[in-house]
Amino acid sequence: METFLTFLASAFTVITWFALVVGLPIMLLYFVYHGVVKGFLSLFRKDKRSSVFTTTEHRD
Prior knowledge:
Keywords: Membrane, Transmembrane, Transmembrane helix. The chain crosses the membrane at residues 6-33. By secondary structure, this protein is mainly alpha-helical. It has one helix at residues 2-59. The mean pLDDT is 81.
């Protein structure tokens, strides 16, 4: 029974470290990409679209 509990504890430790070392950076990169990169891209896209709309409005 003691060896089984030791195995469970070591497996839990390995899973926890795997989640911290692998999962946490992936989540951080995901949120940085969606928050920062897509934010900048949407700003540039809105500027391009608004400039296109203003040019078409002036043509009409």
